[in-house]
Structure formats: structure tokens, C-alpha cells
Amino acid sequence: MVFSSGNYANKVCLHSLLLLLFSANVAFSGTLVTSIPGFDGDLPFKLYTGYITVDKTEMFYYFIESEGNPKEDPVLLWYSGGPGCSAFNGLIYQIGPLAFNMTHYAGGTPKTYYYPYSWTKDANILFVDAPVGTGFSYATSAEAYAVSDKITATQVYTFLRKWLIEEYPEYLLNELFIGADSYSGTSGPIVVKHIADDNNAGAVPRLNLKGYILGCPRSDADINDNSRIIYAHQMGLVSDELYEAAKESCNGSYAEVTTSQSQCYEDIQSMKHCTKDINKNHILEPKCTWTSPHPYGESLRRALEEDSDGLTLNSDDVPEYFCHTFGYALSYIWANDKTVREALHIREGTIYDWKRCNQSLSFTNDVNSVVDYHKNLSKLGLQVLIYNGDHDLVIPNIGTQQWIKILNLTIVNDWRPWLVDGQVAGELVTHHKNTSVGNAFRCSTGSSIIIQSN
């Protein structure tokens, strides 16, 4: 739709009027949390928690105001992967202002402390447990628990629009970014497309979309599966002979291999045997089976990595650096503590056993690739940040770089070091297409990043 200057001015006036009406009449459902068990003193930032009704679901959120200038800093919506992992992951392990104190844990409510390098220094961050069945988000009917990639994107978009319009309209004019990681790299671009499509269709009020951020994103299933084999070979996890044999027997395609492809299937199984005892989230770290009360068998090791349930917790014997899953285990104790739930204003009787990652989520994978979404979004002049770890075997950076090349972005500045405090933290490359520019870097500590901007 094309507006004349007069019509555009009228639209801006209408938008401003709607903001005033929303500000005057809205009844906030979010509740300010000033203190939480395990944290000494009052929180040094503003944390709000609450629920937004989306059809027959109640989507739970943590909202942390920017520690800079909340009225002018951007709003970043963030949800985690899995599918089924709580946005609490992002809040306490990745980009939020809280972290667990894993030193000398002796039982009881785990201690938390203020993390000074949070993204909330410069952004208002809205963490949402999505899709329904994740974290503290719940459904009011059994059938509503059945979700998929497309349903997740719709839930997140509907949640965001209702949150901004009905609950926090004062943030409608702030720049808006969508953030997701891991498996949610599939639904994240679809959320962005929903916003862009509705903005183009003249939806009022218009969401002030500026870009999106995806961490270690699952963007194309086939590319991702193939990149695991290539990455395992490049990192020396499988031999040259085995890799070459698999490359020949599988014709260079390792995704969805069946038993009918006998030699290819056998070669792939041999590769999996070589990497089965490696921590695939970070190949340089151990799998920390020492925390299991019965540390034997692949099923228990997998349960430790994904569920961190039923553990014997004692951090005195192993330095915290060597076991990130110990911190994951603490989240179960913290989030299932009655006093913590009361502080967060969790509705009683809704979630009986909180899981960091809900492995029993009723989920259908109905999107195999979102590369075409990225292609179309790259034409809109959005700012985009895409990063993933250089020690990640689950979603290797090799695959990320492969699908980015498919976007056919022109290189403006080629691969180069990216520095933090004078130290090389990764590598950076700048791309350009139409009105957008992209930067990519791979951190030596575990991240590859792409940025696109006007």
C-alpha cells in the first residue's frame, strides 16, 4: 500500500492517538519483582513477570527493563530453542543480568548474583517461554499443547503484539528486535515475517521492527546434518579414511540416511560411534557424567545433558568451567522452589514440575528450511545478527556459513579479526545487498556472527 504525504501524516496522528488511549486504559498484568530467593538484597534492575493469553494458552514472560535508558533503548524479544527450552536459559546462562553461583553449592536454594555484562545494559529484554508447554507457559485445554514450528511463530507473534498493545504500549515506539537461539532459529525468521507482513498491510499500531538476532540457529535441516559430518572431520574427531569412505558411499549427502543405503548407513554409524562420548554442545568440554548418581549408559548421560534431573550435586570436586551442566541442574532446584515461584508470581497448580528443557513437548517439525525467509528478509534493510559457536557439533558454524552463502550477499570487507580489549575474540566479514550490510565473525570462545544493517 502506498500513502500520500497527507495520508501518512494522518496515519501517524492515528498511531499517536491509539498510544494515548492504550496508555490511559490499559490494566497491566505484569508484576514488579523486587527480590528473589538466593539473591542478596533487592534486584539492581527492574524485573516484571506475567502471563499473556494467546488463544487457549497462557504465555509466561520475564521482562527486564534496560539499565540504560528504557524509554529510548530497543526492545528485544527473546525465546530459546529445544524445542521446549525455557527462556530462563537466555536470562541466566546467556544474555541476562543474573547468573548462578556454582562455587561450593551445599544444598538449598541456589545462589544467584548480578552479571554485569548483560545485554540489558543497552536493551529492554522480554524473555518468553515459547511455545506453550515450555517453562511456565501452559495451555487451558489439552489440544492446545500440540505445537509446531509454524504454530510457535504464530504464538510468539500474537504474544508480542498483545504484550506491546495491551500491556506495555509505552514501548510501541521503541526499536524492536526479535531474538531466538538453537532450534528456534527455525521459527524466529517466521516471526519476523509475520511482523513485516502486517506492517506492510497497514496494521495499526505498527510494530517498530528494526531487525532480528539468532544464536546458533537451525536454519536448514539438511545443511545442518551434512555440516556435522564435515565439522567432525575437520576437527579431527573422525579419521580421514572414514570421512572419505562416507563421502564416497553417501555421495556427499549425509542427511536422512536409511538402512537401505547399506554402506553409507554403516559409515555414518561408525562416525557416530567416534563422537558418541563427546559433549556435542562444546566439543572441548566433558559430558560431566560425574554428577549422575548412576554414571553409566548412554541414556543416563543423555538425560544429564538434556534434563539435568535426579542429580547428585557437589561442585567441590570439579571446577565450574569444566561442567556447564552443573549450572543447568541448579535451575531445576531454583525454579521448582516454592518461595521462588511465589516471588515470580507463578500461578499455583499450572506447572507442577518445571523443566529447563521439556523433552516431552508435543511438537511437530513442519518447516525444514528457512533460508528462503532469510532471502526475502534480506531485502528489507533490517539489522540482523546471527552467531554460532566454533566448538558446537550440534549446529556447526560450517553449516551457518553455507546457508549464508546461498543468500548471495556481496562481500564488502572480507574475513578479518574482531577484537575485545585488544584480544582476538573472533572473525568478522561484511556483506551488502541492496540497502543492507552484513558482518560475520567466529569467536575463538565459541561464536560465529553475522550482522546486517542499513
From TrEMBL:
Coiled-coil stretches noted in the UniProt entry, renumbered to this chain: none
Keywords from the named record: Signal
Keyword Repeat: no
Signal peptide location: 1-29
SUPFAM superfamilies linked to this entry: alpha/beta-Hydrolases
InterPro entries recorded: AB_hydrolase_fold, Peptidase_S10
Any one GO MF annotation of this record: serine-type carboxypeptidase activity
BP-aspect Gene Ontology terms: proteolysis; secondary metabolic process
Family named by the database record: Belongs to the peptidase S10 family.
PANTHER family membership: SERINE CARBOXYPEPTIDASE-LIKE 17, SERINE PROTEASE FAMILY S10 SERINE CARBOXYPEPTIDASE
The name this protein goes by in its record: Serine carboxypeptidase-like 18
UniProt source species: Quercus rubra
